[in-house]
Design a protein that fits this description.
Elements: E1 3-4, H1 6-21, E2 31-32, E3 35-36, E4 42-44, E5 54-55, H2 63-75, H3 83-90, H4 99-109, H5 111-116, E6 119-121, H6 124-133, E7 137-139, H7 140-143, E8 149-150, E9 155-156, H8 158-164, E10 173-175, E11 180-183, H9 186-192, E12 199-201, E13 204-205, H10 206-213
Parallel strand pairs: 2-12, 3-13, 7-10
Antiparallel strand pairs: 1-5, 4-6, 8-9, 11-12
Helix pairs in contact: 1-6, 2-4, 2-8
C-alpha cells in the first residue's frame, strides 16, 4: 500500500511560502496557482482536513473493486464491453489504481472514513487549495484520471459512479485550470502567510503541466 499524509504536503507548502514571503512582499503576490500529483484519493472531512492518509496513484489495491465496477457497468449496459468502453468514456484504462475503484475499496474496508468524507480530492494540489480556500475543487486534467469523468462532456459520469455504488456528491467541483476556485480565507492566511483574499486558481495536474510545457495544445498533436 502506498500512502502519504496530506498534512505533510500542506505543512511543507506553508513553510516554504513563509520563507518566500520574507523575500517577496506579500503585496506583490497577485494570485496562487499549482500543479500537483494526480490520480490520488484524499478523503477530506467537512472542515477540509484529511481524515486519513492519501492513497496514491501508484497504489493498485482496488483490483477486485475495479472488476466489480466493470461487471456492474456492463450489467447496467453503461459500458457493454467493460474496460474498453470505460476507456471510451474516461480516456483511461480501468484497473485497481483508478481512484473510483479505490473509493469503493474505502467504502467496503473503511466504512466510517467513507461515511465521514465530505469530498474525495483527486490531486495533491487540491488538498492545499481546499485548506487555503475552503473550496473542494478539482481541475479537468487531474480529475480525468479518476476513472469517473466523462471526458467529452467534462462532467462527472453519473453512470460510472452509480455503477460503483458511491455518492457523486462526494466528488469535487470541476474547474478548468485557468479558472479561479476561490480566495485565501483568514485561516488560510494565518497558516500560509498569504494575504486574505488572494485569488487561488485551479491549476493542473503534473502530467497535464508537462504536456502543455512540451508544446502540445490540441487533440491529435504529439511531441
Amino acid at each position: 500500500m502506498k500512502e502519504q499524509d496530506p498534512d505533510e504536503w500542506y505543512g511543507a507548502f506553508c513553510s516554504l511560502s513563509k520563507e518566500m514571503l520574507e523575500i517577496i512582499p506579500a503585496a506583490e503576490i497577485g494570485a496562487i496557482i499549482f500543479s500537483g500529483q494526480m490520480q490520488d484519493v484524499i478523503s477530506v472531512g467537512t472542515e477540509g482536513k484529511a481524515l486519513r492518509n492519501a492513497i496514491l496513484y501508484s497504489d493498485g489495491r482496488a483490483d477486485e473493486q475495479a472488476r466489480v465496477i466493470i461487471r456492474e457497468a456492463a450489467r447496467r449496459n453503461v459500458v457493454p464491453l467493460g474496460d474498453a468502453y470505460i476507456a471510451e468514456i474516461t480516456g483511461n484504462h480501468f484497473d485497481g489504481s483508478m481512484p473510483l475503484a479505490k473509493i469503493l475499496w474505502l467504502k467496503e474496508n473503511e466504512p466510517d472514513i467513507y461515511a465521514r468524507t465530505a469530498c474525495f480530492l483527486i490531486s495533491s494540489k487540491d488538498y492545499i487549495i481546499g485548506r487555503l480556500t475552503s473550496v473542494f475543487a478539482g481541475d479537468m486534467t487531474a480529475c480525468s484520471t479518476a476513472g469517473a469523468m466523462d471526458l467529452d462532456k467534462k462532467i462527472w459520469s453519473e453512470e460510472l459512479i452509480g455503477a460503483a455504488g458511491v455518492d457523486i456528491k462526494k466528488f469535487p467541483k470541476l474547474f478548468y485550470g485557468h479558472e479561479c476556485v476561490g480566495t485565501v480565507t483568514e485561516t488560510g492566511a494565518t497558516e500560509s502567510g498569504y494575504p486574505v483574499g488572494t485569488k487561488v486558481y485551479a491549476g493542473t495536474g503534473d502530467a497535464g503541466a508537462t504536456t502543455l510545457a512540451s508544446g502540445i495544445l490540441a487533440p491529435g498533436e504529439y511531441n
